[in-house]
Design a protein that fits this description.
With 265 residues, the protein is mostly helical. Helix content is 73%, strand content 0%.
Length: 265
Amino acid sequence: MFSFARRRASWLASCCIAIALAACHTQRDDLQRATPEVLYQRAHRQLKSSDFTNAIKTYEALAARYPFTDQARQARLDLMYAYYRSGERESAIDAADEFIRENPTHPHIDYAWYIKGLVDFERSANAIERFFRVDISERAPTNARKSFAAFRTVVDKYPNGEYAHDALQRMTSVRNRLASYEVNIARYYFKRGAYVASAQRSKQAIEEFDGAPAIREALEILINSYDRLDLGELAAQTRTIYQANFGSEVPKVAAADKKRWWKFW
C-alpha cells in the first residue's frame, strides 16, 4: 500500500514537471514566432497589469529579435520602467544609458534621463530608514548628486517636455538634502575648531544651493567662523547679507569644545 502511494506521488510529480516544461516550451515558441506588433502589445498588457517579470521577458525578446523596429525602440523605453518597478535598479540605469547613447535625437530621450534621476532619487532611503525617519542628510550623497544631475538635464535640455515639471520638483528636494549635508559637515568642523574648513564648507553650500532651508544655518556658521578667524570685514559683509534675508541678528554658534578626545572628565 505504501509503495503504491509512493509510486502515485512520483507519477503525479513527473506529470507536473512535464506540463510545466511543455508550457515553458510553448511560451518560448510563441515569443519566437510572434511579430513585433504582437510582442509589443503583449508586453504592454503585462506592464499595465504590473506583471513586470513577464513584461521584461517579452520586451527583451522583442528588442533581441527585431532590434531596428519602432516597436523595439519603444520597448527599450518601457523596459527601463519595468526594470525600475521590479526593483532591478542597475538594469534600469544600464538600459537608460544604452538608450541615450544609441538614440541621442529620439523625441522621448528625456524619459531616459528622467528614469536615471528617479532611480537614484529613490535610493536615498530604504524602507526601514523611512519607517524610522532616519536623517539621511548626514549620509554621503553620492546617489543624490547623480539624481540631481540627471533631473537637471531633463529641466535644462527639455524644459517643455512631459517630465520637466516633476524633475524640477524633485531637484528642489535633492538640493535641500545636499545643502543639509554640506551644513552638517560645516557644523562638524566648527565644533572642533577647524574654522577655515567650516568657513569653506559653509561658503560652498551657499554658492551651490542658494534657496535651500539649510542656507540660513550655513550663513550663521560662516559668520561665526569669520569672527573666530578675525576676518572682521568678511564677517561684516556676510552679516549684512544675513540680516537682509532673514531680518534678524546672527545667533552665536557654540564655540569649539576644547576637551581632548582622550579625556573623559
